[in-house]
C-alpha cells in the first residue's frame, strides 16, 4: 500500500488499543487518511496539541539527573585525581554541552510534533530510519535493566532493615542474582511497567513529583552529614592523587567527555519529549533550568555529601545507597531507600522506557504499539541479566565506550541532515507515505548518503571506543584515553561525512519555494500562526505546533 491508496481514518478505540496515542486520549495523534498504515499509528502521528510547559521539561531533566547513577558518576570523578573545584567545573562544562546538543535535537520534533524515530525518516529515509531506531532501542534495553537493578539494590536495603529474615534469601541465587534480588527486581519491574502502561500524562505527573522529592532527601542527607561531621572537619580535597595544573587539563577533558557520554542516550531521543512542548522557547527554558542550573546544584550536593562521609564514616562513600545504609537508622533507610528507588525509576522511565517504545513501534506501527514497544524493552532487559555484566568494571567500560560510539554518529547525522542539508525544513506528511515518488523515499526507502555516513563514522568510532582498552589489557600499548571521546569522535565524523556526501550528491530535499505542509524551523511559531491560522484554529492549537502550514502539525 502507498499513499496513492489512502488508508481508512483511525477508528474509535478503547483505552489500550494499538492506535491510542502513547497513553494520550484517543485522537491525540492526528491519523490522516492518507497515512500509510505501515508507517503510522496514533503513537507516531503528529500531535494535535502540545501542552508541556518549561517546568515539565525541567522536571524531565531532574528525573534524569537525580539518580544513583548520576550521583555515582559525579562522585567517581574524584578517583581521576581532580580536586572538588575541578570536578564542579568539569561537570558544569559537560552539562552545558549537553544542553546545547539537547536544544539542537529538540527542535525538529517540537516543530513537527513527531517523535525521534519519525524525524529520522526525513534524514535516513522512510525505511532507513529503522536502523537508528533499532540501535537506540537496543541500547535502552541494556540500560533499562541496569537501572532497574540499581533500584532493586536500594529496595534490598529496606527489606533487610525491616524484615531481618529476608537476609536468608541472599544465600539462594539464580542466574547470578540472589532470591531477594529477584524479588526486589520483580517488584520494580512490575511497578515501572504499570507506570508506563498508564501513558505519557501519568508519566509526566510522576516526573513532576520525582525530581523535587529527591532534592528534599538529598538536601536532608547533606545537612545531616554536615551536622554530624562539623563543617570545619570537612575537606573537599578528596582525591587520592595529586595532579599539577597541566596534568589536570587532560583529566578534566576526560571528565567532561564522561558527562556527555552519560547523557548521550536521553539526549539523542530527547525529541520524544520535546514533541510535547508548548513551544520551542519553552523547551529551551526547561533545558536551561533542568541542565546547567539543576545539575550544578545537584553536583554541589553530591560533593558536599561525599566529602562529609569521610569524617563521619572514616571513608569516602560515593554511592548514596551505601551512604544511607551506613547511617543505619530505620527512618533514614526507609526514606532514603524509597527515595532513591523513586529517582531510579524516574530516570529509567524517561531514558530507557519511552525511547524503545517509540523506536520499536516505528519499525512496525501496525503490529507494535507504543506500549508493545515498551514491553519488548522490559522483557528484553531481564534476559540480559544486567547484574552480571554491570558488576564487572571492564564490562562497564566497554559498554560506555560502545554506547558513545554508536550514539555519536546517529546524533551527528541527524543534526547535519536537519540543520545543514534540509535547512530546518521538513514536509511532515511525507514522512508517513511509502509512495516511491515521495521526497523521503530516496533509494528503496534508504538515503544512501546517511547509510554511507553511518558506516564511515560508526566503524572508527566503535573501534576507538572499544579496542584501545582491549589492546592495553593485552599488554600491547595503552591509548585507552581516546575511548573517553568516542561520542565526540562518532558525532563529528557522522556530521562531517553526511555534509560531505550531501554536497557531492544532494539527496535531502529543502522544499525551496514551498510552504504548504512544510515545517520551517527558522520561522517563529507565533508569527507563523498569526499570519496563517484563522483565529478559531489558533485558539485551539498551540502556536508551537505550527509547521509552516495553515495550522499545527496535527491539524488536518
Short characterization:
By secondary structure, this protein is mostly helical.
Observed structural traits:
556 residues, mainly alpha, Hydantoin permease, two-stranded antiparallel sheet, disordered N terminus, transmembrane, Uracil/uridine/allantoin_perm, transmembrane helix, nucleobase transmembrane transporter activity
Describe this structure in words.
It is built from 21 helices and 4 strands. It has 556 residues and is mainly α. It has a domain of 338 residues: Orthogonal Bundle (Hydantoin permease), CATH 1.10.4160. Strands 1-2 form a two-stranded antiparallel sheet. Strands 3-4 form a two-stranded antiparallel sheet. α3 packs antiparallel against α12 and α18 packs antiparallel against α19. The longest helix is centred in the middle third of the chain and has 34 residues. The N terminus and C terminus are likely disordered.
Top CATH class of the domain at 54-391 = Mainly Alpha
Measured between the Cα atoms of the first and last residue, the distance is 21 Å
Shape: globular
CATH superfamily of the domain at 54-391: Hydantoin permease
Reported CATH architecture of the domain at 54-391 = Orthogonal Bundle
Count of DSSP helices? 21
- List segments where confidence is low: pLDDT < 50 over at least 5 consecutive residues: 1-20, 524-556
- How many strand units? 4
Q: Work out the radius of gyration.
A: 24 Å
What order do the SSEs take from the amino end to the carboxyl end, as H and E? HHHHHHEEHHHHHHHHHHHEHHEHH
Average per-residue pLDDT, rounded, comes to 81
Q: What does the largest sheet look like? A: 2 strands, antiparallel
Into which percentage range does the β-strand content fall?
under 5%
Structural class: mainly alpha
Spatial order of the strands in the main sheet? 1-2
